[in-house]
Amino acid sequence: MANEEHLALLQRGVNSWNEWRRRNPQILPDFSQNVFSQNVFQSICNLDFILGNSSSDAVSKTESREVKISTAHFSGANFSQTNFSGANLAGAELRRANLTEANLSRVDLTGADLTGADLTGADLTGANLLGARFSKANLTVANLTEAIGGLREADASPEQADSKRVLFNKANLSGAILSKANFSFADFNKANLAGANLSGSSFHKSHFHTANLAEADLSEANLSEAEFSFADLRKARLRGANLTGAYFWMADLREADLCGATTNLGESYLFRANFIGANLSRADLKDADFSNSYLLQANLTEAILVNTNLKGAELKGAIMPNITTPKPITVLRVIKKN
Q1: CA–CA separation, 188 vs 45, rounded Å?
Q2: Rounded to whole angstroms, how far apart are CA atoms 295 and 291?
Q3: Using CA atoms, how far apart are residues 62 and 85, in angstroms rounded to an integer?
Q4: What pTM was estimated for this model as a whole?
Q5: What is the pLDDT of residue 94?
Q6: pLDDT at 234
């Protein structure tokens, strides 16, 4: 339960609270299981609220609905199961914070720093994540449905992109839900997205270098010009995904499902990608470059292979489409190993 003395100090105002914190750095504030009233938060609105930097700070199971505590310092604080729905946490310092099962729906986390934070099972539906940093954070089974983390082309200059792009590099998003969200230009390099649901979301020009997307659902996702070099996409579902201009150099797509992906792959870079056992049936592969790729036992039934470059590709056991079009496929030096 919350410490009544701490609550009383907080209600005296930020200046009194901060002075007490400076004089008593060894005391850990305890707001656990407390329901914060609106008038308490009004006193700290837009101010530098110092809660402490200890990993054992207890503020769990609290409610902070419709509040604004931007630029707050909550590093290492415990907000497990806290309800922040609709709060303004723009620019908040939440490094290594415990936000397991927290309700962060519709929260403004613009520019917030959640590096190394634990957001296991957290609800971030509809949250604004522009410029937020989730590097090395744990978002296992977190819900980011309809979250806003994508930049517009107009805001994607190198200078603006560096400050506004959302960072998930090395984050754990295994089993997370990122459906119907916008993460254009986001950084997922080395992130773990195994089994995650990314269906229907936009990842235009996002980076997934060496990311783990095994068994992830990317159906109907916009992956145009996204970068997947060395990414693990084994058994991933990419049905109907837009892969125009996507970069899959040395990516592993073994047993991936691209069935019915009718979007144009012609501008995609698939050099030396691994499609062993992949389902490419009815996929639109016009002008695609599969040179030196691995397509052993791949299913290309009814795939469109007009002017497709299969130079050096390994096709042993692949199910090739019946060619009924007058425009032949381009097959240069096909390798079939015995």
Answers
A1: 33
A2: 10
A3: 11
A4: 0.79
A5: 86
A6: 96
For residues 201 and 220, the answer to whether their CB atoms sit within 8 Å is: no
What's the average model confidence in pLDDT over 191-213?
Answer: 97
Angstrom distance (rounded) from CA 1 to CA 230: 49
Amino acid at 311: K
Length of the chain: 338
State residue 151 phi and psi, 5-degree precision.
-90, 150
Q: What is the DSSP letter of 42?
A: H
Neighbours of 237 (CB within 10 A): 22
Based on C-alpha coordinates, what's the Rg of the chain?
24
Mean pLDDT for the stretch of residues 199-217 = 97
Three-class SS state of 14: helix
Looking at residue 250, the DSSP 8-state letter turns out to be T
Q: How far apart are CA 283 and CA 306, in angstroms?
A: 11
- Closest among 32, 54, 46, 55 to 87, alpha carbons compared: 46
Phi, psi at 157, each rounded to 5°: -65, 155
User: What is the per-residue pLDDT for 60?
Assistant: 47
Please count the CA atoms within 13 angstroms of the CA of 172 that sit on its side-chain side.
12
Say what the pLDDT of residue 97 is. 86
Q: Where are the alpha helices (DSSP H) in 43-88?
A: none
pLDDT bin (cut points 50, 70, 90) of residue 17 is low
Give how far Cα 7 sits from Cα of 4, 21, 37, 75, 327, Å: 5, 13, 11, 20, 76
Cβ atoms of residues 265 and 288 within 8 Å: yes
